[in-house]
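Review form for a predicted model. The reviewer records the input and the model, then writes brief findings.
Reviewer: anonymous (R2)
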Amino acid sequence: MVPAAGSAVSAFDVVTDFVVIFRTHSDIEAQIVRGLLETHGVMSVISSEGPQSIFPLSVEGLSAVRISVHPDIADEAQRIIEAHRTELKNGQVVRLRDEFEALQHAIGYRFRDRGLLEHGMTHTSRANEDVSGGVADNESMEFLGDALLGFVIADVLFREFPDYDEGQKSKTKASMVSTSTLARQAERLTLGDHLLLGRGEEKTGGRRKQALLADSYEALIAAIYLDGGIEHARAFIIREFTPLLEEARRVGVAGQDYKSALQELLQARDLPLPEYRLVGTLGPDHSKLFEIEVLVNGERLATATGPSKKEAEQDAARIALEELRIRN
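Model under review:
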């Protein structure tokens, strides 16, 4: 919540070409408010009329710290601040809520350096819109998280599935670290709600894009590793993937032809054969992902993505099988 010490201005004060929308005597409070605005895609500038205080309360004689934004987004910025404001209670200032508190609770891990989590949630579209050049995107963290996830899953499969041959282990691993699987894991954590996106990506539904969610999930794994080490990262992955590993053990996911299994299940229920359709493609030509949907009787049962149409169809069939088993 926004501390009561700071004050949103009632009449817009124009500084250069920007509008002052918040004034406080605390540099700490100013940084908190600026961080809140940035999580909502509103870029701001901090300026000072004089010496700043480390105390989050108004002290007579100290000059104000001001937060300014472009006039076009001033109203939006003030609405965001007011939505996070609380009153002064019992003489104590209540600070801005931690924007990542819900996410930390969902993942079962509390960061010592919250900046790592923020870095992991920062999409390249957000970094590209930062004119200061001080915002780094999470692409390198995606790379690291992908490697960590692959290693941990491979290690678990090696230890817990000794009867699987190399091909079966590879297929099971590929299924678990696929874009569609990671996107579903991200959706379960409502990861999309916490992403820091550029305005363009926000407008085009970036918080719901499978590829973007999967990448951010990998970046989250990297952030946990960088903050707490390999044991914390491994513990998170094991917690997250235990249900999938149990399912693999129960139904023998590894070597299964999901399209054939889906066809057999539909025939057993006197339903028509499935239909696979290409919804579209994602990413550049050198790393293109194909998005496939599977329909039965005109009803879409599942959608999945993969580096080839064949792999996407198999993953879509797997998800459709899970859906039909839940309904039965």
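Findings: Residues 1-5, 10-15, 51-62, 86-97 have pLDDT under 50 and may be disordered.
Further findings: The radius of gyration is 24 Å.
Recommendation: see findings above.
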